[in-house]
Each structure stands twice: as structure tokens, then as C-alpha cells.
């Protein structure tokens, strides 16, 4: 793929590193003219957003959005977690966004609890319905150059591939000042040139451990 793709596709969404995907989700609602408030609980839980669409009551949250980046298909646990936050805050609707697909059980639970599931293919379809200028504006979250390389969830600096006793992973380039690590979806191909880094997928929390 080019350093910055010229058009949207499901493959682009799937290959986005975790922070770019979360930023894209927030920007998508902003271009729709929806006021959003974003909180970042950490790399393991993903980003959480609150949407405010009630003109008569602008301070009333109308929906909670969770963004979860995982290399696996998401099951109903992620939907249950979102529903729990909705119930605790008294918010009637929820949206769960992820680059991968959702299980049948996740879809069933979501349909019964006013939760919309948006996977990568669905998100691309929504973006393609936007005016061309807005589609291009959202492409700023796809590069250039490092959009497939994750940034460290602890310090925000770029990460690099590393081979450990547990297998390939991402490690912060600012080590030893920062010991942030992330699992890697796949290892770089043997003999790959510098910068030929595979898609970044974050199934779990950042790790802090000695090398």
C-alpha cells in the first residue's frame, strides 16, 4: 500500500494502528457536526466518546461510543461492557466501533439493547457517503509513513518491532526511559527492508516489563 492511500477501503481500516483508528472514529462524528467529548482510559480499553445531539438539551449525552482495536473478532463481552456504562450513566444509545467483525452473539445482544455495531467495512461505507472533501480530510489519520506503525500507549512515541522470548511484539523506541510494549499481529517478513512493518493490531493492554 502507498504511504498515504488516495481512497478509503476496509483494508485501510484493518491496518490502522490503534491511535489512528481511535482518532478517526472521533473525527468521523465531528465531520457529521456532532459534538463529542473524548476520554482515553488506556490502551487496553480503547477510547470512549460521548455524543451530544439534543439541541434542546445540549448538555445531555445522547449516545456513548466505545472504540476497540483487536486482531480478533469481538464477542459479546465488549458489548456488555458498553451496555454497563450506558446503564450506569442513563444514556439510551450506544455505538461500538472496531476494525474487525463482531460475533453473532454480539449482534444479538446489541440489537436488543439499542447498541449499533460498526466494523471496518461498515465504517468505510459510512465514510464513502460523505462529501469527497470530508473523505479526503479524514485520510489525514492514515499517514503518511507511519500509519501502520503503532505509537506507544504510555508515552506517545513511535514503536518498533522487536523479537522476544514470547515472540514478535512492538516496543517503544524511547526505551529504557519508557518500557511500553504491545502484542504484534504478525512478524515482519524475513529480509524485509527497514520500514516494512506489518499491520499493527492491539488485542490487549500495553505491557511494561524488562527486556
Question: What's the arrangement of secondary structure elements?
Answer:
Blueprint: H1 10-15, H2 18-31, E1 35-39, E2 47-52, E3 63-67, H3 76-89, E4 93-97, H4 104-112, E5 115-118, H5 120-128, H6 132-138, E6 159-164, E7 167-172, E8 180-183, E9 207-208
Parallel strand pairs: 3-4, 4-5
Antiparallel strand pairs: 1-2, 2-3, 6-7, 7-8, 8-9
Biggest sheet: strand arrangement: 1-2-3-4-5
Provide the domain count. 2
**Number of helices, where a helix is a run of at least 4 consecutive DSSP H or I residues:** 6
How much of the sequence is in beta strands?
A: 15-25%
Rg (C-alpha, Å): 18 Å
Low-confidence stretches: 185-211
* CATH architecture annotation of the largest domain: 3-Layer(aba) Sandwich
Q: Biggest β-sheet, characterized?
A: 5 strands, mixed
Oligomer: single chain
Structural class: alpha+beta
Helicity, as a percent range: 25-40%
Structure notes:
It is a single chain. This protein is an alpha+beta fold and 211 residues long. It has two domains: 10-141, Trna Endonuclease, Chain: A, domain 1; 159-208, no CATH class. The chain is built from six helices and nine strands; from the N terminus they run ααβββαβαβααββββ. The strands form two sheets. It has a five-stranded mixed beta sheet, sandwiched between helices. It has a four-stranded antiparallel beta sheet with strand order 6-7-8-9, with no helix packed on it. Strand 1 (35-39) and strand 2 (47-52) form a beta hairpin. Helix 3 (76-89) runs parallel beside helix 4. It starts with 9 loop residues before the first helix and ends with a strand. Mean pLDDT is 78; it is low at 185-211.
